[in-house]
Design brief:
The chain is mostly helical. The protein has one domain. 76% of the residues lie in helices and 0% in strands. The protein is built from 3 helices and no strands. The chain is elongated and about 45 Å long. The N and C termini lie far apart (48 Å).
Length: 80
């Protein structure tokens, strides 16, 4: 079978689209939530190693992070 340049390009584009679809099916679910969890975990580590207490505000911030992490993890479980 003889393929023209245009049909070769069209077939190649279709193949790339198919591969892109397969790749996205394997993508990690909810990357924004998982990214937020990672950012909050890093912020918590940073605060835990801070040099000062800042009048109790550092401790309250860590507690708020813990509550936020709990909610994000519950959100991931809810979607299962």
């Amino acid at each position: 079978m003889h393929m023209t340049r245009r049909s070769t390009l069209t077939a190649g584009a279709a193949g790339l689209a198919l591969m892109a679809g397969i790749g996205s099916a394997r993508a990690e679910p909810h990357p924004a939530i998982r990214g937020a969890i990672n950012a909050l975990e890093k912020a918590k580590r940073d605060l835990e190693h801070a040099a000062h207490d800042f009048g109790g505000h550092r401790v309250e911030a860590i507690q708020a992070i813990d509550r936020a992490l709990e909610q994000l993890r519950l959100a991931l479980k809810y979607d299962r």
